[in-house]
């Protein structure tokens, strides 16, 4: 016997419709690329999303077509989120910090049909346009007055598309399992891989993220997502905020300490979210300028491990609660948040910090376990550490176009993180088994850097590992064995990288050794090497 509740699919368009109907006059404020502020309401955002959806229809965008963006956090990007997914097409947010070749690769792999571009990225796209095989329309996200002179073929003006359409549109209804958004991750080996979310997964994630023991969002909040809308959908905030009817403040490209602090204060921001590197910049600026926060109550810190000192500084010096969170692109992204249980209310201060320094407890919807190298489940005793596996309705089951084959192990997704789980369910990451390095929230491929090192005539073998850095979280170093008789120096090897990689991928140091550790199957054992190098301190730290 079925229940008798209404059978309604979970669709992203319902979020913006709800925000319009129940929080219509709540504001969305954006600092534009042009430098000025733009303010409007959820009602306006809904109306313009519908007009844009009509414009997309006019450009020939159909169900399941991919529509890409190269854009900062702003109201136009927000409208594209809703217009594209609401129409049944798929929004593909491209990370502009990837190399040019990677951007071309993923845009072609995704078969993007339309590309929306913030003014900042027009010169970048002009260089790539000839190689973007499937893009039929380039839309520049500005008004007629700010349209740049461009070599892009038949570039369209965003505001003209909006003006040419009215908002008389009923959002279509379709299966909630329909794809809604596509994000590529370079946090795996090989080419970037696409993670394809559905309306259902996005909606369930939006509900769960808003809960008190997750991000604790409310209609009384003003939320400034520092985390970019091209990083796993700004951790889902553009959806969760509409669900709750929270005021949104979008910083555009203005992420320096002063700009952020001004926006926090002028807009009465109560809650924010970002990677540790951004907060370090803001905290340094605040200390130098002897500033305070008058409205900020909490901030989510994740994407990389949050340094314990940062948690203390926020909480003790500024009265801002830190929500240390862990997740990944493959998980929409939210997996765990380090929030307290009732039993911690009377705990000593240090014991409470010990809880917050961990990556946190699984939020409902995410199940997790740790396993040993044979796949045997390890105890949740806070001591045993092993590969962290997850499952849940917003965890990926495979990559777009089945790239890399079936990633699952007995129905669980291997995260590539190595962790402990304590008896209270708090997970702590102790290492990473995947061969990538995370610097300032962005991935660096250790394998690419190793391949370059061994291409040098003086090098026999090289391993690249990430080492703790106070500002960037991790930076790459090369640990290499020289060929007998070779005289290659650190400087020579670093020069050899010039022109072959993006500047921010440049290793911070080279250490020459006689031997490198290997596993039983002859592979480089980075886990052992990281252990051997645990007392090493970066010259740049
Ligand atoms: P991404 O897919 O780019 O969001 O990266 C996900 C990966 O970032 C995870 O698998 C972790 O390796 C790392 N990560 C994310 N959040 C944290 C955190 N709070 N602490 C440590 N590592 C983290």
Describe the structure.
The protein is an alpha/beta fold and 541 residues long. Among the domains are: 177 residues, ANL, N-terminal domain (Rossmann fold), CATH 3.40.50.12780; 98 residues, GMP Synthetase, Chain A, domain 3 (2-Layer Sandwich). It is 29% helix and 24% strand. It is built from 16 helices and 25 strands. It has a 9-stranded mixed β-sheet with strand order 2-1-11-10-12-13-14-15-16, with helices on both faces. A 7-stranded mixed β-sheet has the order 7-6-5-3-4-8-9, sandwiched between helices. The longest helix has 17 residues. The chain is globular and about 75 Å long. The mean pLDDT is 96. The structure holds adenosine monophosphate.
Furnish the topology, listing elements before pairings.
Blueprint: H1 13-23, E1 27-31, E2 37-41, H2 42-58, E3 66-70, H3 75-86, E4 90-93, H4 100-110, E5 112-117, H5 122-128, E6 137-140, E7 156-157, H6 158-163, E8 179-185, E9 193-198, H7 199-210, E10 222-225, H8 232-235, H9 237-244, E11 247-250, H10 257-267, E12 271-274, H11 276-289, E13 298-301, H12 308-318, E14 321-327, E15 334-337, H13 349-357, E16 361-362, E17 367-371, E18 386-391, E19 413-421, E20 427-432, E21 436-439, E22 442-445, H14 446-455, E23 459-469, E24 473-482, H15 490-497, E25 509-512, H16 526-532
Parallel strand pairs: 1-11, 3-4, 3-5, 4-8, 5-6, 6-7, 10-11, 10-12, 12-13, 13-14, 24-25
Antiparallel strand pairs: 1-2, 8-9, 14-15, 15-16, 17-18, 18-19, 19-20, 21-22, 23-24
Bound molecules: adenosine monophosphate.
The site of adenosine monophosphate (AMP) has 20 residues, from strand 14, strand 19 and strand 20.
């Amino acid at each position: 016997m079925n229940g008798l509740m209404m059978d309604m699919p979970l669709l992203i368009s319902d979020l913006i419709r709800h925000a319009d109907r129940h929080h219509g006059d709540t504001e969305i404020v954006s600092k534009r690329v042009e430098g000025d502020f733009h303010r409007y309401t959820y009602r306006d955002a809904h109306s313009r999303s519908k007009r844009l959806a009509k414009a997309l229809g006019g450009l020939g965008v159909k169900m399941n077509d991919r529509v890409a963006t190269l854009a900062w956090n702003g109201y136009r990007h927000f409208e594209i989120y809703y217009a594209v997914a609401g129409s049944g097409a798929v929004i593909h947010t491209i990370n502009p910090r990837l190399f040019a070749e990677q951007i071309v690769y993923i845009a072609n792999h995704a078969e993007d049909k339309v590309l929306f571009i913030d003014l900042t990225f027009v010169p970048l796209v002009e260089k790539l346009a000839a190689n973007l095989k499937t893009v039929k329309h380039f839309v520049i996200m500005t008004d007629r007055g700010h349209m740049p002179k461009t070599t892009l073929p038949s570039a369209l003006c965003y505001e003209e598309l909006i003006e040419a359409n009215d908002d008389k549109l009923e959002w279509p209804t379709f299966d909630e399992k329909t794809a809604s958004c596509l994000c590529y991750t370079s946090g795996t080996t090989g080419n970037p891989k696409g993670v394809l979310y559905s309306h259902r997964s996005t909606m369930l994630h939006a509900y769960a993220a808003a809960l008190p023991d997750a991000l604790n969002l409310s209609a009384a909040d003003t939320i400034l997502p520092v985390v970019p809308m091209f990083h796993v959908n700004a951790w889902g905030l553009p959806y969760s905020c509409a669900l709750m009817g929270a005021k949104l403040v979008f910083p555009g490209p203005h992420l320096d300490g002063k700009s952020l602090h001004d926006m926090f204060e002028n807009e009465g921001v109560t809650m924010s979210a970002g990677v540790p590197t951004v907060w370090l910049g803001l905290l340094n600026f605040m200390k130098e300028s002897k500033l305070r926060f008058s409205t900020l109550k909490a901030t989510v810190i994740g994407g990389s491990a949050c340094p314990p000192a940062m948690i203390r500084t926020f909480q003790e010096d500024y009265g801002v609660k830190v929500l240390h969170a862990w997740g990944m692109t493959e998980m929409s992204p939210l997996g765990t948040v380090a929030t307290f249980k009732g039993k911690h209310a009377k705990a000593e201060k240090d014991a409470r910090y010990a809880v917050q320094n961990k990556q946190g407890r699984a939020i409902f919807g995410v199940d997790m376990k740790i396993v040993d190298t044979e796949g045997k489940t390890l105890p949740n005793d806070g001591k045993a550490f092993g590969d962290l596996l997850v499952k849940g309705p917003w965890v990926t089951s495979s990559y777009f176009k089945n790239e890399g084959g079936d990633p699952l192990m007995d129905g669980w997704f291997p995260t590539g993180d190595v962790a402990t789980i304590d008896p209270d369910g708090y997970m702590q990451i102790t290492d990473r088994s995947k061969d990538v390095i995370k610097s300032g929230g962005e991935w660096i491929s250790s394998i690419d850097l190793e391949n370059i090192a061994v291409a040098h005539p003086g090098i026999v073998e090289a391993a690249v590992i990430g080492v703790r850095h106070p500002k960037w979280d991790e930076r790459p170093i090369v640990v290499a064995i020289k060929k007998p008789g070779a005289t290659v120096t650190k400087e020579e090897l670093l020069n050899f990288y010039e022109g072959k990689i993006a500047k921010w991928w440049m290793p911070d140091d080279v250490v020459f050794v006689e031997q490198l550790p290997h596993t039983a199957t002859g592979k480089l054992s980075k886990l052992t090497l990281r252990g051997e190098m645990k007392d090493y301190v970066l010259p740049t730290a």
